[in-house]
């Protein structure tokens, strides 16, 4: 049979025609799918841009807040975030913020539409917080990455505005710093009454340090500053540091050197990874190397657990890997117990003794506490002279406690019962 007749016969065969038709349709559909997929990938690579913000990144909460402001009012799929705000009176208010939930959301920003995709991995957990791993992906048309830069900066400014005028206290959790408690209203620096000139001297020195980073760089001097406040307990060392942080609009990073399980490596990392614009505070450094009142039985119970060594602390303060642009305050009640290497210049640049109240200090505390009394100066001077003449040392905490005990009493009654200062 000639070839033409054979092909004609096969073409007339309905089974053969149906098979080739289906094959052709399937092949065409597959080519179209592949072409569309490749075209979409090519289009996304050349005409679209994406930004992934993982939950471990510091800007993650900023971006969530920003997305909340831009999209939460338009979407019907929400999740809730409960926050607490401490008022000036000390009362804590509860606020509920509605965030776009897991899924895809569309928002408009400066004339551009941005797709926001929030995903959560149920099988993966953040080891530090114990919550499922999340990320947010922003997708937009164009290739100008300044759009994402503007979004991140706007989100950062929005987050800072919510904390404006507040002091954040951080504590170490694992290998990172976490906010502790509620952001606090800054305590006025003048409310911490120290002996004449001490407060002003430290404030001036810190401000000078902050204002001249290039002076240190040009001279090859490490840009960090260390302070040691020493003296009896209850005299205002820690209170002054927190008030100073509020005056500078800085946060405070509290680090307990005697914490069980704190190692030299972790200490070094925490000192290096402290949040920007914060004061690192090491309290009671004399108790870091073997507790002050630790019995042999208690010490033996923790044998084998790593603890910070003096060498590790010295390396964290000014070793080869120590951080720059750092303000460090250390406090101690017993300066004589500190190793000379710890408080040498370069590690501690300024030492201030915060001792028991002087006569002028008591007088200034009286004037600040009893603002509404008439003839305040007269009574303040008389009270300060009466207390000081006893020769008994009185801490600022004792004086303040006595004032609170007699806050509604007359000046004469306040002066008459001064002996109760040492009973409060």
TrEMBL record:
**Where, per UniProt, does this protein localize?**
Mitochondrion inner membrane
What Pfam families does its record include?
AAA, AAA_lid_BCS1, BCS1_N
Enumerate the UniProt keywords alphabetically: ATP-binding, Hydrolase, Membrane, Mitochondrion, Mitochondrion inner membrane, Nucleotide-binding, Transmembrane, Transmembrane helix
Membrane topology designation: Single-pass membrane protein
Protein name in the entry = Mitochondrial chaperone BCS1
Q: Name one GO cellular component term.
A: mitochondrial inner membrane
Q: Which SUPFAM superfamilies does the record associate with it?
A: P-loop containing nucleoside triphosphate hydrolases
MF terms in GO: ATP binding; ATP hydrolysis activity
Which processes are annotated in GO (biological process)? Answer: mitochondrial respiratory chain complex III assembly
Every copy of the BCS1 N-terminal domain together lies at: 23-192
Q: Which domain of life is it from?
A: Eukaryota
Query: Which protein family is it in?
Result: Belongs to the AAA ATPase family. BCS1 subfamily.
Q: Which residues form the AAA+ ATPase domain?
A: 223-358
The reaction(s) catalysed by this protein are: ATP + H2O = ADP + phosphate + H(+)
Return the InterPro entries for the record.
AAA+_ATPase (IPR003593), AAA_lid_BCS1 (IPR057495), ATPase_AAA_core (IPR003959), ATPase_AAA_CS (IPR003960), BCS1_N (IPR014851), Mitochondrial_chaperone_BCS1 (IPR050747), P-loop_NTPase (IPR027417)
Q: Which organism is it from?
A: Aphis gossypii
- Which CDD domains has this protein been placed in? RecA-like_BCS1
